[in-house]
Predict the 3D structure of the following.
Amino acid sequence: MKKKEKAKRGTEEMVGCEGKTSELAKNEDSSSIKSTQEQAPAGDPLKGLDQQAVDTSSAEKLAQLEQQVVEFRDRYLRSVAEMDNMRKRLERERIDYVKYSLEGILKDLLEVADCFESALNAQGNIPAGGAVKCGAEKKVDDKFFEGISMIKRRFLDILVKYGIEPIKATGEKFDPNIHQAIQRVESDQVKDEMVDEEFSKGYLLNGRLLRPAIVKVILPKNVEQT
């Protein structure tokens, strides 16, 4: 009887030991798994690589967009500058057209001014109160020449309104840009080329030469004529 109880008791002790051993093994496995989980990096490593690639791609796209902005701004500024230059050029052309569009007709009208000038110069060739023969003798009417002079002044005033300006000649220093010399005479009384006589008046149109003055020039001696 005592032997059976001892055997039974030994069996229970063995079963208890096995249970404890099993429980210890379970605890060790659980601790090992937990330790492994703690040591393992959090998250999916592939997921981190994908995020890094996305960030790199976004930075490259941003750099490309910034470069495009710089290029578009440069093109815009160039276009604005070109438009401004074109506007200024067109404005200059418009002003020049307004100033010089009547150049042809005004140049022709200068011949009328020449006729008035010739008529008045003819008065100086006739003695005051004298007579000229034109088939029959007749007195020169001073009032006639006075009327011609008034018409000439009025005519020139109208030309001035359109930008016509007479060129100074007699007594002025010779300027080949506005004077045309058809006669040159040497003299020891001048140091520079001077206009001695004017044969035909010259005119400017808004500061630009319309017709040169036809003149006689006095040269200093020992100056080679050209």
Summary: The CA atoms of residues 185 and 218 lie 5 Å apart. The radius of gyration is 57 Å.
